[in-house]
Amino acid sequence: MGTVAEPDPVDRFRERYAQSPGEVARRVERAVLGHAVGLNGFTTVAQAETLCDFLPLTAGGRLLEVGCGHGWPGFHVAQRRACDLVGSDIPLDALRDAKANAGVRRLGARAVFVAADGRALPFRSAVFDAVVHADTFC
User: Fold this and answer.
1) Residue 29's closest CA among 15, 14, 42?
2) What pLDDT shows up at residue 136?
């Protein structure tokens, strides 16, 4: 009797982010979480506000969001604290959506996205003022 191989978590996330959520999913997300950014996590607006209150960020500072998915809650923090956002994740579809979401949220050049695994980030030490990783497994 053989064993069934567990699916690779990275492959599962790539597949998940390749699918666009429908309007019903966006309505559910808005009703339950208070926002609609593509069902990439479970962080509520209230929890994102708590991050804003506690992170040591000032205008012009730099925030890294590891496992950014479509960009929530990093967008919220970057807008509220007027800081720059660097989002990192593995699924390219998620990063494309995050870039589009950054445009909609008028973050422009203040938001940059990098394809990177949270276990081996390609950044020098002491580049960021704060790091968040909501709903991320590394």
Assistant:
1) 42
2) 61
The pTM of the full predicted model, rounded to 2 decimals, is: 0.77
Q: Do 58 and 70 meet the contact criterion of CB atoms below 8 Å apart? A: no
Q: Which residue in the block uniquely carries the two structure tokens 């390609």?
A: 122
Residue 72 Cα distances to 96, 110, 136, angstroms: 14, 15, 12
Residues of the chain with pLDDT under 50: 138
Helix (H/G/I), strand (E/B), else coil: 41: coil
- pLDDT at position 10: 67
User: Is CATH 1.20.1250.20 correct for 9-132?
Assistant: no
pLDDT tens digit sequence for 18-58:
666 677 777 877 776 666 665 566 787 888 899 999 999 99
Residue 92 CA to residue 101 CA, distance in Å, equals 14
- Helix, strand, coil share (%) of the chain residues, nearest 5: 40, 15, 45
**Rounded CA separation 121/90 (Å):** 11
The three-state secondary structure class of 115 is strand
